[in-house]
Amino acid sequence: MGIFSAMQVGCDGLKVHSARLDLNSKNIANIDTPNYVRKIPLVVSTDRSSFLSVMNQMRESVFGAGTMPYASGSVALSGVVEDPTLGEKIYKPGHPDADENGYIRTSNVDPLVEITDAIMAQRAYEASLAIITMTKSMADRAASIGT
What we know:
Layout: H1 3-29, E1 39-45, H2 51-65, E2 75-82, E3 89-91, E4 103-105, H3 111-144
Antiparallel strand pairs: 1-2, 3-4
């Protein structure tokens, strides 16, 4: 993997995990909003090599040459889905969001789940930032070899 590919992996990670943190903060902000449905980010791998192709590369090159093949890829945010679990029904007939029977549905956001997911997204963001920092450091050291 080249320097620019490693930088791109780090940049992709920063974008995805920043979006995850944005969704977590939006969910946490709407804990008390009636009828709010929790949003869940869909993070996917952009690795284009299949398991079979990696195994074939290993069979042909690793066992003969002793080097590990590398897989190129990154992460991406493929979309956002709504959590299908329902919030609790509360009887509030005068509320503007009440249905025809006078019930409102509370938000289905669980603060513990959101905070835990936000911590994981923050750690992944920090790891992506570390990739960029280490790659920059390697590039600096490689540039200083000739001087």
